[in-house]
Amino acid sequence: LYDVYRTNQRVYFHPGDGASDGSNIVEALQEILGCSAEGSKKKKVPKHMLCTVRFLGRVDDEFEVEAIVPPRSKTKSLTDGQGARVIPVAGYLELRQHPTFTARACAGEAIVRRVPHEGPAETTSDGGIDQSESHYDTSHSVGEVEFLEKLRKRAETQGQSLARRLQVLPPMRKIAYVTSSAEKFHEAVKCLAEYQQHITHIPDLKPQFTTRLDPEKIIDCMVRYCYSILGYSCFCDITWLEVEESTNGTTRYFPYTDDDENSFIRSTDAYDLNKSGDLMEKPTTFQVEDNFGKKATLRSLVAYCYSTTDTSSDALLVQLFEGNLEGRIIGEKPEGKLPPPTPIRYRTQSAVETKLWNNIFIPDGYQHPISDLGSSTFCLGARHLPFLELAQNLRNHDAGSVFEVHVTVKTPSNIEDNPITKFAAACENVTKVIDSWNQRIDGQSKDQWSNHTTVKPVLIENDSGETPRQMMTASHHVGTLENVHIAAFRISQELAKRGYEVTRTKIEALMSNKGIPVSDEEALLLSPENYFEFHIKLRLPPGFDHDLLQRLAVENNAHLSQNPMQNMSDGWQKRFVNLRMYSVGKETAVERLNGCIKSLQTNGFQIDRVIREYAVYDSNVALDKGWIDKA
């Protein structure tokens, strides 16, 4: 960033080594800003850039260059009050790479006026007179003074923005999930994918209770006890099943142990966890046969305990997040027009003989129990919404407000199969559901945080990897990352209802979003799971040199893929050159991207477009193993 001083339309530069006159400055400005020198016959001048640059001479150790700026009534840039646009500094940032001179400077969106020299004039070694106030017009009207002060403050703000963001941005902290269930831990890691390197799996640390407590009090005591043992932030959960009885209202069934949700404690109000005390109820076998088809609800409480000081237990804070999942117990007879929901084994065995109560509970809108939904379970259980709320609580930034969501489903590996037609129909149905979704989130209706959303089908074929063929959705959303995260899971749930197994949910922010890390220092303060991703779409003729393209991709640490749905009938095809970059800021990422683009263009490849994104959530980056590996 540089100090570039302005007097009316004149700009002053401090010359670097080897600069004998101002011609090189004019040439550099012409090249960088796309403008022409005075008297030049060059006619093509971008409207948003300078119209004319003229070298006026040298004052002491500075070059004086006059920049004539065309007035633009619709520009969003600041003006000097007379219709002339203030010169943007963005173009001058490139001057630091110039070999023959540097610009003297302060940073900002606008160029600041030259500060006149104070004190008596001094004679230079060559007999010339050093700079004095007489060299510059220092008189300003009241409006000009206010305007220049505004420019100065804007410049200071721009120059300090990075430092301010780095100071305000809290570092990601270590956190423990206290549970003896490996399945629940893996579920949490997928929902909290941004923090998977910071989450530690800790076996149960349960306190001994001597009295009955409500679930809310139980989970509060549990998480505080865990914090007292661990000494750092942690969370735990409790999940129970509520079954509606025809005569006695609702009956609660709690798990006897965290990792054995097959043995239940039957209670109509509350329960305790003291297995050796007299107040402990004995485990009750939940007989599926006695509850076929009954309406039920899975309820979950997640408690997060942390300290603002990390030194005193008196400063502990606990947040509770609640999730509910309505459904029914499996039954022998189908309900409504649904087919028989479960395999025969569920009709003859109790929950104790099966694996967890996910085997006996069918969520509303689904045809099978949770355990039959494969890899989709992480986005539809009773704990998923509390985990998403916890993720937002842990998140140290928001990369709003325009995002793209991709939900990948299990795809037939046989390349002869063409599942996209059926999947396109499913996406069309999901679009209708999402558009009619009026559920309120944080007091705001869907229509207040997201416009019409079209869920499109995409089929990607990677050149390598363990899962080269991936079928996914693509949809754009407007809102906070928290709300878009919920919307992404809603799309995942709708696909699971239609028989698709969700293997990945991914959220990408636009490069222009406000929360994108600019510098490498900023990137290191965010999640190490976040990454920049660029897709360079090439338009390739029949018989193109695939070996050359592959070699260039390897040289630029890029990877090839294609969308077979976009191939053209005349033999031309479109392919992607993909780059993924972790732990770097936007500046570094764009520099590497430009290097790859230059390499492709130099070798004659025609670029159709470039897609620039920043992934802020990826539930299963391992799906790309063997194609793009994180290392």
From TrEMBL:
Record-linked SUPFAM superfamilies: ITPase-like
Name assigned to this protein: Uncharacterized protein
Species this protein is from: Entomoneis paludosa
